[in-house]
Amino acid sequence: MDRKKVIIAEKAPKAIGPYSAAISYGNFIFTSGQLGLIPESGEPAGEDIRSQTRQALKNVQSVLEAAGTDLSHVLKTTVFLRNMDDFAAMNEVYAEFFTDECPARSAVQVAKLPRGLAVEIEVIAAI
Questions:
Q1: Share of the chain above pLDDT 90, in %
Q2: CA dihedral sign, ordered 24, 26, 28, 32
């Protein structure tokens, strides 16, 4: 029987609450939302959507690597935006990370994100 396993990602920002960076179950990885925080300092990568999106996706990469997989195995992403007017800029950076056989994706505007940041990204991936 499959059992869930907590994934600890040393190269991603530490959790700011009672949750894990990711959980593996069977052949799947479910990540928590990753913000555009620099892992070493815990500070935002920048004030703009591009720098925060780039860092959030780097953090997703680090979590996936800790789980033994990578971005090429991502099946679905969910992007939470503070402002849907940032969608085009977020999408430009997103396209740098997902270039071929892109995963399914949802993008939604939310009222507020932790620490007042502009974007948070979570993924479901295969191992």
A1: 91
A2: negative
Residue 59 CA to its chain's centroid (Å): 6
Cα–Cα distance, 89 to 49 (Å, whole number): 7
Rg of the chain taking only CA atoms, in angstroms? 14
The four Cα atoms 38, 44, 83, 123 give a dihedral, to 10 degrees, of 20
CB-based contacts of 75: which residues, under 8 Å, 6+ apart? 103, 104, 123, 124, 125, 126
For the chain, the average pLDDT equals 95
Report the alpha-carbon distance of residue 88 to residue 23 in Å, rounded.
30
Give the confidence band of 39 by pLDDT, cuts at 50, 70, 90.
Answer: very high
Length of the chain: 127
Q: Is the pLDDT of residue 1 over 70?
A: no
CATH topology classification for 5-126: 60s Ribosomal Protein L30; Chain: A; (3.30.1330)
In the chain, where the domains are located: 5-126
The continuous run of DSSP H or E covering 91 comes out as helix 87-97
3-state secondary structure of 117: coil
